[in-house]
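May I ask for whichever protein you like with its backbone structure tokens?
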Amino acid sequence: MDTPFLPLQDIFPIRTTVTDNSIRIAGHSLHKLAKDFKTPLYVYDAATVRENIRSIHSALADFYPGEASVSYAAKAYFSAKFCELISVEPVELDVVSFAEAQIALNHGFRADRIHIHGNNKSYEELTLAIENDFHAVVVDNFDEIEMVGEVAESLRKTARVWLRITPDMRVETHPHTETSARTSKFGFHVVNGDAENAIRRVEMQPNLNLTGLHFHLGSLLFDADVYVAAIEEIYKLVLRTGIHLKELSPGGGWGIRYTPETPKNPLENWIRPVANTIVGICRKHKLPLPKLSLESGRFISGRAGVALYTIGTVKEGLDGEIIAAVDGGMADNPRHALYAAAYSAAIVDNPNGEIAAEPVRIVGKFCESGDQLIAAAALPRPQFGQLLAIPASGAYQLSMASNYNLAPRPAALWLEENEPPTLLQHRENPEINSWWLT
């Protein structure tokens, strides 16, 4: 019998239910999945991924009268099987490495749906992109203008490029996820004239075709005003240089909810002002509407993923704090250690139990005091052997996982209703696929 699961219902994947007081996703018992595949384990709800893509397209259709596209940022989470599954959806792909690009080409993405980003691309990466006619090489710096031109000339190709513009503005997020300030390592800064100079330099390269401009302000943003201000800066640049802007990518970074305390952040609060700003400027200056390309990694995969752990030792601190250690931690999810990221959690077989008087600190098993997943979780008092589920774990966790303490990276599953789980990535086997054996 299904029962309500209200406190975290809109943070867990959309097909989360509580049946017989145990959490299920897409009809799959998390308890059984943990038994069959061991923990730590990551699961992805296919319907949530698809719904998030659909909702972005729907908002673009509602608010932007020009051509538009949605790109998935591979850095959020990627594997060969995940690539294959997402390639059939109406998304383009942002990659930032040779491996991501090669997997994309080998597992379902046409080259004309791929953009390659990065602030220090290698000749190998640029050659792969230009040889295969990627939709765009997102050029980050003056050295790269020369490198792309050199590779394109050697291949007798014309490379389609976007320039990454840094609008030199602060945004409200963690300093490590801010990408647009004056101190940013990314892109061509506006305030010192680099952005304008970069446009002139690209125009002088016979093997480069400037098709678009791109900026990225940061991650986990909840304020669309910063996007509006950045777009206004971009169009001042367009008007000064007189370029024909065919494509505009205002990046991504729109925030998702990790805890019930986080305010809801509907897509229309982002896409409506972005679209209205572009349309208003283009109408005022009689410019053609560019293709609007939104990037979204976290929004597409973040809520879809859930991390499962087995609770081990439970102790009380000197101040009465409850400390529960799990069998994973910073090796599979370094976000709290890196950004003090906040999360919520549920006991899989007691999600609606009475909350303990004291919050529970969820820590990992690794030899670092900073190995912590949740500083203060509202949970029933945890017990040894229980399963813990942490929602909103689908982005920037497995993709940043490590072998710290020689921990094997966990398995990940794709869940469809009425179908067996699909393995997105194997649990690493230290006896077979581990670098430390060679």
Summary: The longest strand covers residues 305-316. The chain is about 25% helix and 25% strand.
